[in-house]
Amino acid sequence: MSPTPPTPAQIRAAAARLVAQVADGGRSLDELLARDPDEGSARGLKRSLVYGTVRWHFRLLEILRRLADRPPEQLPPPLRALLEVGLFQLMSGETAPHAAVAETVSAARELGHPRAAGFVNAVLRRFQRESDALLRALDTDLAVRTAHPRWLVDALLLERPEAAVAILEANNAHPPMWLRVNRRRSSVPQAAAELEAGGWRVERHALAPDALRIEPAADVRTLPGFAEGRLSVQDPAAQLAVEVLDPQPGERILDACAAPGGKTCHVLERVPGHCAVTALDVADDRLARVRENLARLGLEARVLAGDAGAPGSWWDGQPFDRILLDVPCSATGVIRRHPDIKLLRRARDIPALAARQAQLLRTAWGLLRPGGTLVYTSCSVLRAENETVVAEFLAGTPGAVDVTPDRTRDWPPRSGARGPGYLLLPGEAGMDGFYYACLVKPP
Ligand SMILES: C[S@@+](CC[C@H](N)C(=O)[O-])C[C@H]1O[C@@H](n2cnc3c(N)ncnc32)[C@H](O)[C@@H]1O
After folding, report:
1. Pocket around ligand 1: residues whose beta carbon is below 6 Å from it?
2. Is 1's pLDDT higher than 50?
3. Which of 17, 62, 195, 300 measures 20 to 30 Å from 359, CA to CA?
4. Per residue in 51-76, pLDDT tens?
5. How confident is the model at residue 358, as a pLDDT?
6. Which pLDDT score, from 0 to 100, does residue 415 have?
7. Is 379 among the catalytic positions?
């Protein structure tokens, strides 16, 4: 017997609990949703409430501050999150307003706050009456209008004043679904035809030759060819990392921060013939995903658990021809896909990440053969994690040359990037935000 589906109020209560676990518990949406029960038809609504509320959290919180008779910080977190869910529904217009209010009020009882039902009702109804004037006043503040933490808005205005507003707005867009075609098992025209026959609208990308955008987005399990290893899900910005690396047959290649293996697999799919790829990651548990992806796509790599910053324990002393260093970073370039980054990342995280990235870059350089190529990439848009790391490295490393401009010469003109490497802004050419620096060691 299938379980009774949750009521609309229970869906809202469950969404509020999840939002509170992100906003107050510091948990990531990926981690929470991976463990969340699949409640059939309720899943889509719950996810869209959770993602929407998290995406607009900083704006919803300020609205709440103006509407409630006590500061939102003094409310129990799930109740505060429920009010945010209610406000999000009224703003998104995806639910009829009377249903949004009624179900949110009932959800307060589901959350164990029956006495707050009147308060929830009063806040949401006041918003309905006053929203125009309220939003006009609040939207004069860029951080509130675009629902970002102030530290990130300030950093972007300081570092990229000409692009800051566009970045912040692109971060709130719904991300398109992009696939990567496995050249060893299919071709882009063949995969496109298969998807079109299945009813999807399909589009290619001008810069990423293996990429296909599909519309509407779908559960991967329903895509023709996914289980058979002809397709993977990957944004073209991530695919371009391997275009910049330009791996060649017969080479020894290190993917130094490999999990879950998207780029490792792309390297192997892209190279005709054999190349010896080592997929390294410090997080042993994440390597299972690398192995799964390799197996599904019919590829082979040496998968190793180890710290790229301490190669003594795993390196055999044989230098690599090419190294991909896809560093752990703030992920501020992929906020449109992971809106919880806005809530989870703090300004104080950035210096520690930058120090780690610089150490990884210096160490990886020591594993590269003379004349070899190292590609440093991140999905951050912050200069401290990108241009600054690479510029300081170049200044302290005699002979290292930044050849990124050669590799990216057909890409969009660099939008205000300063320093070495190339920064792709979020939303630019339909892609996630990403940074690439291609460095060559003197022969
Ligand atoms: C941006 S993710 C890599 C994504 C991956 N390249 C892909 O395309 O699927 C960064 C990875 O770096 C790993 N990492 C962090 N510090 C590391 C270290 N010191 N040595 C090796 N891997 C590390 C993390 O566990 C994480 O899996």
Report:
1. 238, 256-263, 280-283, 286, 307-309, 326, 328, 360
2. no
3. 300
4. 999 999 999 999 999 999 899 999 99
5. 98
6. 64
7. yes
| CB-count burial class (<10 Å; 0-12, 13-18, 19+) for 96 | exposed
Q: What's at 328, amino acid-wise?
A: P
Q: Name all contacts of 271-274 with Cβ < 8 Å and 24+ positions apart.
A: 271/247, 273/249, 274/249, 274/250
**Best of 180, 235, 245, 257 to mutate for ligand 1, by most ligand atoms within 8 A of CB?**
257
- Residue 164, pLDDT > 70, answer yes
Flag whether the pTM goes above 0.90.
Answer: yes
Band the pLDDT of 36: cuts 50, 70, 90.
confident
250's CB contacts (< 8 A; 6+ apart) are 273, 274, 275
Which atom of ligand 1 approaches the CA of 256 most closely?
Answer: 21
- Report residue 93 as tokens: 């217009």
Cβ neighbours of 357 (radius 10 Å): 25
Cα distances from 351 to residues 224, 341, 376, 424, 435, in angstroms, run 44, 17, 18, 22, 17
Which residues neighbour 340 within 8 Å (Cβ) at sequence distance 6 or greater? 22, 28, 29, 54
